[in-house]
Design a protein that fits this description.
This protein is mainly beta and about 230 residues long. The chain has a single domain, classed as SOS response associated peptidase-like (hypothetical protein yedk fold). Helices cover about 10% and strands about 35% of the residues.
Length: about 230
Amino acid sequence: MCGRFTLRATREELAALFQLPMEAIPPWAPRYNIAPTQPVLGVRVLQGHPRREMTFLHWGLVPSWADDPGIGSRLINARAETVAERPAFRAAFRRRRCLIPADGFYEWRRVDGQKQPYLVQLQGGRPFALAGLWERWERGGTVLESCTVITVPANARVAPLHDRMPAILAQADYELWLHPQEPDRERLLALLQPYPASEMEAFPVSRRVNHPGNDDPDLVQPLSPPHPIP
């Protein structure tokens, strides 16, 4: 699954990665422990608008038909294997796909009887895009735009920590994923694959990550000595 992630990239790096002008990047301070129900950045293309936009979305997808927006806390992830059919996600999969900027995510394993967090990132910590979906919910004048992160089976780097990982998209696939009128479901599903393990690294970090209220640069520093992954 994907329950915490980081976004330490500069606005300049985000503009370059997503091919956006600087003025299109909202004010953003580095985040080291992004948790569900918090605002996250999302990149999308709205129907009838040819250009990408970056905006804030609530992490935890709330379908337009939901009576209670609290359902979003249970819909932070969508499995790639069922995303096209599950009622909560299928409409968004057809028309409201997005990219969620990140540069690392956390997974845990038991070490000495305690939950030990590991930071998983691309080699060198460069930013990337998670495959996501977004929705718009409105009731009584209240509007909520929310998102979910799609997950796939873990690659060999992540598998010792968890059997799932977020779907990371190649930059060459951003345009296809964002296209709001792409009709080929199988073509889209084919993009949702485990990212190559050889291009990723994972290392243990402070257990302070376990508390969502902690959000500072020390969280992403490797432990010394490290706990090796078997």
